[in-house]
Write a structure and sequence with these properties.
Layout (H helix, E strand, L loop, with lengths): L1 E4 L2 E8 L3 E6 L20 E6 L16 H14 L5 E6 L1 H12 L4 E7 L7 H8 L3 H15 L4 H13 L11 H4 L5 E7 L7 H10 L3 E6 L12 H12 L5
Parallel strand pairs: 3-4, 3-5, 5-6, 6-7, 7-8
Antiparallel strand pairs: 1-2, 2-4
Helix pairs in contact: 1-2
Length: 247
Amino acid sequence: MMIHVNGIDLHWDEIGEGEPLLWLHGGMGSGADWQFIFKEPLAGYRLIAPDLRAHGASTDPSAAFSFRQCALDVRALLRHLGISRVKAIGLSGGGIVLLHMATAEPALIDSMVVISAPSYFPEQARAIMRQFSESSVGDAEMERMRKRHKRGEAQIQQLFAMARGLADSYDDVNFTPPYLSTIAARTLIVFGDRDPLYPVAIALEMHQSIPRSYLWIVPNGAHGPVFGDAAPRFAATALTFLSGGWK
């Protein structure tokens, strides 16, 4: 499905029936990436999975990407769908979008799981961003990218340029402790202890700043430690948390 909003065509999928659950993919990914974690539609949930601007089948003709703008895009989608409050899972860049949504409009997010999503970009992440290219991701990931992104090589190169541009961006991802303290949602923060981009110290700072937060540090976990063999445990834990099973 497609909606024109904020100067772009925003694509999204809906899977299943029940309580709305928003899934926001990471940078260079697409909405369909939920399938790498949940092997089938989630019983009792209406999964809403947009492609963030410039990703998947969504457009970004002005190349004016920011996580804050993505939050406005997703908010417009939820308004279009008549959803005033939602549970959500956000991976990496998708988690940053959720932080923008949860701070800009605290009543919108009921509960959320944010995975490998920092409150700011440390220098070690910026150094990696500056060098980001096809050689950084390898042939297998490039093949997956070509399947995800529907607008060809130009779109993929736009995404690489976007990622490199984040290295010199300081106002888009800048969630100070007072800012994080305004989040009303129950929040599960998930970080790997071997994430090359974001040290665990950032996760601890976020946990200390977000009032109703829980912290899950994944041992020997890299960036986005919820795929592959880790997916079943993450899926079970996240769904238990979102259902209110944690007190």
